[in-house]
Amino acid sequence: MTSQITFPVNTLVGNLTIELPQYIEVVALPDRQICEAFKSFAKFTCEGEKNSLYRGQNTQTSKLTVKIKGKRNKIIIGSNADVRGTINIVGGNLTVLIGASTTFNNVNIYCKGWNHSVFIGKDCMFSSDIEIRTSDSHSVIDLERMETTNPPDGVFIGDHVWISKFAFIQRGSVLASDTIVGFGTMINGNFSTENKLIVGRPGREVPNRRVSWARKGELKVVDDSIYQWRELPLL
Q1: Cα(21)–Cα(39) distance, rounded to whole angstroms?
Q2: For 192, how many CA atoms within 13 A lie in the half-sphere containing its CB?
Q3: Would you say 74 and 7 are in contact if contact means Cβ atoms under 8 Å apart?
Q4: ∠95-3-42 over CA atoms, to 5°?
Q5: 50 CB-near residues (< 8 Å, 6+ apart)
Q6: What is the pLDDT of residues 94-148, one digit of tens each?
Q7: pTM attached to this predicted model
Q8: CB burial of residue 149 (10 Å; 0-12, 13-18, 19+)
Q9: Burial letters 183-214, b for 16+ CB under 10 A, else e
Q10: Cα dist. 148→112, 223, 225 in Å?
Q11: Confidence category of residue 226, pLDDT binned at 50, 70, 90
């Protein structure tokens, strides 16, 4: 049997509903106190109310540091994911989801604000020194309108996305499945077409090229097996 969970992602994507298979472990974190548990993490601290952790099978998190502060926040890590770096959540009704078989070498996720998410699909491959932010941390104010111009917003990254070293993914961004993000690229905006190579600061699609990628180096024969990731469950 499966259950469902719905959460807001960002302005472009809206709400997502996903299935939680029976094998997902659900941990309701203690309310109104600092929780420093879970030896399977490098460090795990939580302060707030109604925060939850969801874990699939065979997750590797011994080199992941987690800090949660706020209410009704969720971390969801899919089966066979190997996640290294930091996840820092500050606010309310925030979700960080990392799909099955996704790997991080060293990724820092900062999810701050209210009612949005960092969604990372299945079988993604992230290199080191990558930063994902849903907030600029400080406000930019239009003095004519007396309005904040940079409100927090979530990040959506599809399935089977390869993100290279030193990339920076900004609030409100969308990356389609089966794309490649080049070294040092800054993603800011909607890249919703699959099989694209995105490079530069700010990021731009390389024209007239359709690409995919495989974890195996120096492939001598390329066939439909490069699309096996499509058959994986999200979690």
Answers
A1: 24
A2: 6
A3: yes
A4: 40
A5: 28, 31, 71, 72
A6: 999 999 999 999 999 999 999 999 999 999 999 999 999 999 988 899 899 998 8
A7: 0.95
A8: exposed
A9: eebbbeebbeebebbbbeeebeeeeeeeeeee
A10: 16, 50, 48
A11: confident
Of 216 and 20, more confident: 20
**Residue 38: band (very low, low, confident or very high) from pLDDT cuts 50, 70, 90:** confident
Instruction: Give 147-191 pLDDT, tens digit per residue.
Output: 888 899 999 999 999 999 999 999 999 999 999 999 999 999 999
Domains of the chain listed by start with CATH number: 3-140+148-231 (2.160.10.10)
Structure tokens at 188: 């800011």
Q: What span, in angstroms and rounded, lies between the C-alpha atoms of 219 and 204?
A: 27
Q: How far from the centroid of its chain's Cα atoms is residue 156's Cα?
A: 7
**One-letter amino acid identity for 229?**
W
CB atoms within 10 A of CB 140: 10
Give me the pLDDT at residue 94, please.
98
First to last CA, the chain: 14
- Contact present, 175 and 156 (Cβ < 8 Å): yes
* 8 Å CB contact between 21 and 44: no
